[in-house]
Amino acid sequence: MSTVVLLSVTGLGLGALYFLVASGLSLIFGLMDVLNFAHGALLSIGAYATWWAASHSFGYPLALLFGTAVGTLASVALELGLIRPLYRRPREQVLATVGVGLAVPALLSAIWGADARTFPVPASLGGTFTLLGATVPVDRLVLIGAALVVLLALKAFLGRTRHGLVVRAGVEDRAMVTALGIDVRRAFTLVFAIGGAAAALAGGLAGLYFGSVDPTQGSSLLIFGFVVVVMGGLGSVSGAAVACVVVGLVQQFANYYSTAGLGDLSVVVLLAALLLVRPSGLTGRLA
Amino acid sequence: MTSSLLSVRGLKVVVGGRHILHGVDLDVAPVGVTALLGRNGAGKTTTVRGILGLVPRTGSVIYDGLETNGLTTHRIVQRGIGYVPEDRGIFASLTVAENLRLAERDPDPAYDLVHELFPELRQRARQAAGTLSGGQQQMVAIGRTLLNRSNRLVIADEPTKGLAPRVVTEVAVALERAAQAVPILLVEQNLALVRRLADHCAVLADGRTAHAGPAAELLADADKSRTLLGVGRRADTAPAPVAPAAPATGGDH
Predict the structure, then answer these.
(1) Strand partners, B153
(2) Residue A168 forms contact with B (CB below 8 Å)
(3) Fewest C-beta atoms under 10 Å: which of A57, A169, B102, B131?
């Protein structure tokens, strides 16, 4: 029983990380039709910025805030400087984001080395607690809590604000939004900022989860981010939330109860099976 | 026609390497309804999309004294244009109220007028727009253009297409009411409706302007109507304003 509890909480923690990556990715693709392969780089930027700040006695909460802010700025700069000039050239857009996705880890390696750097986990988050007989690391709860807060904030933003309304409408029909006199490019920048913030937050929290940061962490998590986006339905935050729980749990249980590494394969098989049954993902959006 | 609110000259549009418009000239009067007519595939919808900058185009489009070439769609629309697209442009997952709210540009939107013309929209405010009937969706689309009193032109692209006769009448009443306050460029195949509403008209054929002049004059001329619009009988004998006089077939470009 305690093993099941531990695997469940750990799976949910991992799913929370996936959600933070996937929610921005999903919104960006849904609204802008941009497959942002640089999203993992934003996570890495957030992770390293948080690590750097935490290593310089900022304290973890402030370091996380700093990392998120840096990632958000990087995301806005990416949208304004690289994505916007290529709006009508999707192939070049993909190539540009792939380029950034490769360049940022290389840059991080050049500055701080290719080896993983130990993340200074604060004592208050490095402990464990007992839940139904299982000894569970506290950081799992932090991850799950952060993902829930982000989910609720995104739902409130999308459902209760005019900017959110524009984003939801833009996901359906971008041209019609502009035909109503709305500058949809502002929504693009906003969505990139939100996506970048969530990815950078994921980076800061990933340091907590894995106990270290390395230049390729973003790229690894991005793959599962894409899996969650496709499973949840492109452009659907709620779909991403459901899918990340499923992916996180399947991965953890498969890894534990079968051969290590089979968890990743299980996720891919699950994605293939879902797409066979529901080609448009869990929420019915076209994949 | 007196000085135009909208003046289009030599409008050309190429979509996917195919020339859709070869040089459209069009004037929209500063009052009343100007109809844009033509057979299916003549280029009416592309003309509207070109005017709004929704497709890349060349030529001159002067709206309210300003050349709109180089302006983005939202900038053109913000100068006071309401647009009812051919496919209604409804956001299916948004509620009726959200669809309307999205179109608000004025600080004091004219919900009283919209709800007076289409009381159903008030009752269905919380319903997802995608679950509405075609007629109700058209009410939302037209309602969005009427919300902003600052609109100085409404462009309605086949607003009665595919609607039941009862709804066509409702739409006609709404457009008639709107036309009292704001000029309308009406793309329409329902010639009975055109005869009822339009003062002027332009007819497109093969991506060019084939005729321009008073609407009543064209519709009274059976030969010309037949030649330009493919109408098989005198349009002025058609009952107003319901069933389409021209065959309502597939979409325009």
Answers:
(1) B81
(2) yes
(3) A57
Q: B89 to chain A: which residues are within 8 Å by CB?
A: 173, 176, 179
Q: Can you list the positions of beta strands (E) in chain B?
A: 6-15, 18-28, 33-38, 57-63, 66-67, 81-84, 153-157, 184-187, 198-205, 208-214
Kindly report the pTM of this predicted structure: 0.83
Nearest residue to A154 via CA among A236, A73, A233: A236
Residue of B nearest to A182 (CA): B74
Q: Which residue of A has its CA nearest to B55?
A: A175
- Between A173, A178, A184, which is nearest B91 by CB? A173
How many other C-beta atoms are found inside a 10 Å radius of the C-beta of residue B166? 10
Instruction: Write the pLDDT tens digit of every residue in B102-146.
Output: 999 999 999 999 999 999 999 999 999 999 999 999 999 999 999
Establish if B165 belongs to a structural domain.
Answer: yes
CATH of the domain at B75: 3.40.50.300
Question: Is B242 within the bounds of a domain?
Answer: no
Query: Which residue matches tokens 């002027």?
Result: B200
CA distance A159 to chain B (A): 10
Tally the domains of chain B.
Answer: 1
For residue B103, the chain A residues in CB contact (below 8 A) are 180
Residues of chain A found within 8 Å of residue B101, distances taken between Cβ atoms: 162, 165
Instruction: Note whether residue B33 is domain-resident.
Output: yes
Coil, strand or helix at A234:
coil
pLDDT means per 10 residues, chain B with 253 residues, are: 85 91 95 94 95 95 93 95 95 95 94 93 96 93 94 95 89 90 93 93 94 92 83 49 41 45
State pLDDT tens for residues A199-208: 999 999 999 9
**Has residue B163 been placed in a domain?**
yes
Peptide bond into A215 cis (omega under 30): no
Structure tokens at B106: 């004025």
Residues of chain B positioned with their CB less than 8 A from the CB of A169: 91, 94, 98, 102
Q: From the CA of A163, how many Å to the nearest CA of chain B?
A: 10
What is the span of the domain harbouring residue B119? 6-235
Is A183 touching B (CB cutoff 8 A)?
Answer: yes
Category of A137 on φ-ψ map: left (φ > 0), alpha (ψ -120 to 50) or beta: beta
Nearest chain A alpha carbon to B75: A181
